[in-house]
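G., the chain you wanted modeled:
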Amino acid sequence: MKKKLIKTSIIIFFLFITIVFFVGLNKSSIYDTKDLVGQRLNNISLDNFNSDLKITEQDLKKNNYSLINFWASWCAPCRDEHSFLLKLNNQNNISLLGVNFKDKKDNALKFLEELGNPYDSLARDEFGKNSVHLGIYGIPESILINKDLVVIKKFIGPITEKDFDYIIKTIKR
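Predicted structure as tokens:
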């Protein structure tokens, strides 16, 4: 009787493991954020880089357009896109919010001192939790929103010349 119970337990255990693996392997593991476009961002509360204040939805509603750029000093592609961000900062119809992602504050400050600070406001996401709420899963990534906080476009990877042209065209409408 004891042997039969052990055999049955082992069979049930392996059957359970097989089912879990089968279900897990058949699920799509592709993380897609295309559904963000057209959606309104809600409950934005980011830690201000230089103070204990928060950057909230109210701060982003002040501008016709905002580009929320997630970056870090240790991110090589962030260096590649930086010149485009500096050029965007010269535009009147857009505000740039930089969100420093999982970075040391001193390193971030050195990065901005070396390359220039394109941001109108600067936030910090030391542990990456707030960025995940906004659909960010790697950096650099940027989200272009309007004053109603509706996502116009999400840029995965560094801003390119083509992306820059798209942003300029959009904010000039």
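Helices lie at 2-26, 57-60, 76-89, 105-115, 129-133, 161-171.

Shout if anything looks off.
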